[in-house]
Amino acid sequence: MEVITIKTSRKTQFLDITDLVQKAIPENKSGICVVYVPHTTAGVIVNEGADPDVQRDILNIFDKLAPEDFHYYHIEGNSPGHVKSTLTGPSVVLIVEKGKLVLGTWQRIFFGEYDGPRTRKIYVKFIEG
Amino acid sequence: MEVITIKTSRKTQFLDITDLVQKAIPENKSGICVVYVPHTTAGVIVNEGADPDVQRDILNIFDKLAPEDFHYYHIEGNSPGHVKSTLTGPSVVLIVEKGKLVLGTWQRIFFGEYDGPRTRKIYVKFIEG
Amino acid sequence: MEVITIKTSRKTQFLDITDLVQKAIPENKSGICVVYVPHTTAGVIVNEGADPDVQRDILNIFDKLAPEDFHYYHIEGNSPGHVKSTLTGPSVVLIVEKGKLVLGTWQRIFFGEYDGPRTRKIYVKFIEG
Predict the structure, then answer these.
(1) What is the rounded CA–CA span in Å between residue A1 and residue C101?
(2) pLDDT by residue (tens digit) across C85-127?
(3) Which of B40, B65, B82 is facing A57, going by the closest CB pair?
(4) Which of the two ends of chain B, N or C, has the fewest CB atoms closer than 10 A to its terminal CB?
(5) Closest among B73, B54, B57 to B65, alpha carbons compared
(6) Which residue of B has its CA nearest to A85?
(7) 3-state helix, strand and coil shares in percent for chain B, rounded to the nearest 5
(8) Domains in chain C, start-ordered, CATH in brackets?
(9) Which among B34, B40, B30 has a CA at the least distance from the CA of B109?
(10) Is the CB of residue B89 less than 8 Å away from at least one CB of chain A?
């Protein structure tokens, strides 16, 4: 298992981690790769990387789905982050062919920060097969 | 890795791909199977297949969560598709026993089209174990 | 594949299944583990377990996203459960190191009941690697 450390810079943010994940994959091997986030106010998504406005739109809709001004019971004030983390999930599973992540033309892997800025960890586990 | 090609026929749609995925699994082997969609306005879900109204209801709620008339910044007009793709994710991981997908009684695997109609790809990767 | 049987006690509920999943993992082995729910009105999530109010907040937002009083076509009355199941997905994939689930400090694994109370199954499949 490889451990990646990143720093996020905003309250909510999608950070492109595709190249970091690619570096954690063994050379020339094929199989699958689990990208796992050990946090409860963060997640991992795969979506478009070409136009940053796509990430902006997704974050804005997320703010609508889990608004700041809802009647939350958890007193730490980060319940929207827990909801967004639940909606996107802690992990994605990717296919690897000959050491390369198999992604669509427009797909990039993003760390989803929903309660930053913070220092965060990402675990990458490769399974040959 | 097996590649499946499908054609969707509507703007948004859940297309039952269970039989296509089953055909891509090696005979008599056990393990897990990753069904992966290399698109950023599509996804994969597992849900009820018996009553088509279930898929209709899910699509209608998705339209409420990511409405067409929101203030999006991405100018291509398909931001709702990117949001829905993010909410459902690019892949599902299924268990395989002796060459058969292990699904619940009512579960079927659906390709989620959120910006169609289009020709789309699905990757199926089996890992023995 | 290990099969876990649980009973839920409310209409909607997150039930902590971390210890049950841990018991289904072979001792001292490393790899990944798929936790799979064979139901269409349930799911699996990973989120905070320390403060029960976090789960309460997530369930309340889920009720807002898929409300009971929406115009649903499916006549069984459990369409909100199908939507919530679609949003959280049927499975999570976890990393296992030397027989132990690799979870973040605050992370617990929850069975998401969205149309209970019911007797439910959970499948756990370990893949060494």
Answers:
(1) 12
(2) 999 999 999 999 999 999 999 999 999 999 999 999 999 999 9
(3) B82
(4) N
(5) B57
(6) B87
(7) 25, 40, 40
(8) 2-128 (2.60.120.460)
(9) B34
(10) yes
